[in-house]
Amino acid sequence: MNERIHALELPAAGLSEATQAYFAKCEEKLGIVPNVLLSYAFDEKKLRAFTDTYNDLMLGDSGLSKLEREMIAVVVSSINHCYYCLTAHGAAVRQLSGDPELGEMMVMNYRAAALSPRHKAMLDFSAKLTEEPAKIEESDRAALREAGFSDRDIWDIASTAAFFNMSNRLAAAIDMRPNAEYHAMAR
Amino acid sequence: MNERIHALELPAAGLSEATQAYFAKCEEKLGIVPNVLLSYAFDEKKLRAFTDTYNDLMLGDSGLSKLEREMIAVVVSSINHCYYCLTAHGAAVRQLSGDPELGEMMVMNYRAAALSPRHKAMLDFSAKLTEEPAKIEESDRAALREAGFSDRDIWDIASTAAFFNMSNRLAAAIDMRPNAEYHAMAR
Amino acid sequence: MNERIHALELPAAGLSEATQAYFAKCEEKLGIVPNVLLSYAFDEKKLRAFTDTYNDLMLGDSGLSKLEREMIAVVVSSINHCYYCLTAHGAAVRQLSGDPELGEMMVMNYRAAALSPRHKAMLDFSAKLTEEPAKIEESDRAALREAGFSDRDIWDIASTAAFFNMSNRLAAAIDMRPNAEYHAMAR
Amino acid sequence: MNERIHALELPAAGLSEATQAYFAKCEEKLGIVPNVLLSYAFDEKKLRAFTDTYNDLMLGDSGLSKLEREMIAVVVSSINHCYYCLTAHGAAVRQLSGDPELGEMMVMNYRAAALSPRHKAMLDFSAKLTEEPAKIEESDRAALREAGFSDRDIWDIASTAAFFNMSNRLAAAIDMRPNAEYHAMAR
Amino acid sequence: MNERIHALELPAAGLSEATQAYFAKCEEKLGIVPNVLLSYAFDEKKLRAFTDTYNDLMLGDSGLSKLEREMIAVVVSSINHCYYCLTAHGAAVRQLSGDPELGEMMVMNYRAAALSPRHKAMLDFSAKLTEEPAKIEESDRAALREAGFSDRDIWDIASTAAFFNMSNRLAAAIDMRPNAEYHAMAR
Amino acid sequence: MNERIHALELPAAGLSEATQAYFAKCEEKLGIVPNVLLSYAFDEKKLRAFTDTYNDLMLGDSGLSKLEREMIAVVVSSINHCYYCLTAHGAAVRQLSGDPELGEMMVMNYRAAALSPRHKAMLDFSAKLTEEPAKIEESDRAALREAGFSDRDIWDIASTAAFFNMSNRLAAAIDMRPNAEYHAMAR
């Protein structure tokens, strides 16, 4: 926490025991406490709302695999050119897929990947929702259903793409810096 | 809940007592249960994460007034042409400000309003963060500080604008329908 | 005429009897003299050319109903975020349709409305003509014909969408203010 | 009138004597009847509203020279890639200026021309009004005033740029064809 | 070479005999030394690399006619609004086709031309490659193959469109001025 | 050369001895023959024109360091989302700078890097030239001169940014695949 993790001077707050324990668990499992968590930690209420949302979305039950959710995260972040999320979630795609090139293609241009029709539909929807949300129509949902997604899956695709449109913008707004450790992970 | 509130067929879920009580409180205070809550209610975990985030963001302590946060919500939703959020939060601006025209200007084009320098800076930042998040630079944060915002306020402006970039996209993705009651409120 | 109706200082001109009579008729029929007419009134020649064009376009014989023409007006103005035209013509859609929600959907995002194939085709064409006129091709006209429009109707759709691309820009250029009365009309 | 002048089949109408006389005068003065007039001629009411507007705008009294108004016409049409208007009004710039290269620069990219500060301001305003009308602010009008334009001139700049945003779209919508004679004029 | 041919002050260089001979041949064949060559001439190595690329691309063996390659050049330059390339290659289209109107349509909006399916496919691909290269997919190549192009032809279409995306940008960056002679050629 | 290196079936060509030697040298120095060279190798004339241009541009004498030229390459490719160039030149930035994070920032969003005023000006110019070449004006060149660049340097910045706007599009058009070796280089 010595280095700058974002551009704002926020009020320092002592961390509750619960948060200290949570961060210790992060370090144990991931080797780091992600800077996004440290960023929110100035206000534990905000931190908890964020982690509750995030953990349900990215780690909870879903018809989408964790890798699929990370692929959506990275594709949205690629369109928005979000340095923080591309770094952190690019690493996650490399790790979960065991395929570093796949991670790079999600970061750079998902259309370069040899995607299954399922993944093509999922990422095309996420890209359109990111770029021109006002133009989503029933035919866009129909394309997901044709690719085999249930309506419950569509909720998850939409929620994930929507969430990273939020995170990308918070990160951009405050110049949030990714932990240096991500860069070398799973190369 | 007889009418369609969005385009997806989601698994019906019985509501817990806590949620039923929460919805009863909504009806009492607002006259309605906002459809966004009913949309999330198929999964109480998601509902709670959403309401925790939302209530802290829009109703919690902040250097921004509730009206200012609603103004950001509507300006972001105007750029994204989000029918749900423009309807619900347009009503909120009319209500909190007692100024129906202000609500309309936020919906239609915030540049038409005679804004204070503080509000101009706040909304210009929110608009840029919505339209081209990749191009936010230190000078954009500096413009907020010059307009009198603290770094803590910048977090709140950023979080609010970012949040509605998420909500707008979830609403667009599933064609979420606003409660009919909003239209006539505070005209 | 006490309040500012636009941002320019234009030479005051005495109104001819004919114009005074016309404005009196407006007040009688609409309850107001629309500020767009007062804006043009500094030069009666310009005023007359404008009203001749407008009245023929929006009120004259056409295969499009008056409501349909107003729907086009609002959809174009929504894309261009024109405060004046959204206010005035949003009111007209509410009034002519007796459906305030329809008016709101035209203002906010016409894709949120449950449109007939005829109206979908008509508004999709108007939106494309507004956003990327250079890309209109024969297939775009063919889509209108398939939706049941005659070539004469296509002229009227095109003329109406084109006209509001003009009006939106004049209003934006001079910050034309809508009459306050519009806001509460037909809610 | 043997060749196709646009893509629509419109009801043929006999021309009134007044219109025949007007077209004869066009032929005499210009050597042609511009196809835009023939296009409108299926309905004399529309034709007259159009010519009244056009003649006042482009030929009437104004603080802008006729050449300046034609420069605006071409710059707007260049952004909108309107074949009809670029052809007809590009010829007008060549003719009125006696400078074929100036005409070409307006068609291709006005920023390539060595413009006076007055013309730069005028065309920058017209370009912004064309590309992003929603973002015009008081500072844009102020830039015109600094370049020496009166408020009355601003009306004319705005009206002219707005008018061609209309004409470009009508021409695009119906694939209006320019008279062949324009191409070789004033080269 | 008395007049300014671009906005930079570059080190003057004596021309080698080979270059002098090449320029003499240009004057003999074209009546001019194109300013793009004079621009590169400050460094003969750069000049030679440019002319080797250019001559192979635009004049070498190809399944595309020289006119077709020039049409691509002009359509790309129209999207990029490149004054230099529109002037020089617009003249080339007029000359090679003997059809001045075709040249004008390529400059102004290729969609206004009555194109063969082959040329429509070729120019649509070139336009998409110019505007949104990241979105090219296999279906775009398939459309070219359906229009009768071989894979070798696709290379040439792609190379030509790509090359002018380079040349347009160099010309824009340094404000490269076209030789005045182009304007009147082949009108 | 067993794996697919792009999407086209091009005529196979025997490689001349000179080319074989050149490729051998590549393997020796870089460990690979870059796929872009293998792509061009179907026609040795095209290959030579490409390598002559490339080697002069990226390796020849210049006021820009090789790293600076690679930074421009990657920033342009990031805007265009070019998988091939981001992979190959992202590796080059990592290698030449010895700073893997710098490479990632150039790939993801150069605005996230703590750039010197020189590099900020250089990359801002390259980004604008990529995104809106038609809007480059004298003030853009002036900003480079203020940052200490000579006119000769401006040529090199412009040429490099322009070149990658070409290469990105050729790579996109034919789905050129980067050598797998790049991914792990200099991490």
Short descriptors:
65% helix, 9 helices, homohexamer
Describe the structure.
The structure is a homohexamer of 187-residue chains. The first copy, chain A, is globular. Chain A is built from nine helices and no strands. In chain A, helix 7 (117-131) packs across helix 9. Chain A starts with 16 loop residues before the first helix and ends in a 13-residue tail after the last helix. The first copy, chain A, is mainly α and 187 residues long.
Poorly predicted parts of chain A = none
Element order of chain A: H for helix, E for strand: HHHHHHHHH
Q: Mean of residue pLDDT of chain A? A: 96
The CA-CA distance between the termini of chain A, in Å, is: 25 Å
User: What characterizes the major β-sheet of chain A?
Assistant: none
Q: Helix tally of chain A?
A: 9
Structural class call of chain A reads mainly alpha
Proportion of residues in helical segments of chain A:
55-70%
Radius of gyration of chain A, in Å, reads: 17 Å
Determine the strand fraction of chain A and express it as a percent band: under 5%
Apparent shape of chain A: globular
| Multimeric organization | homohexamer
Q: Would you count the extended β strands of chain A for me?
A: 0
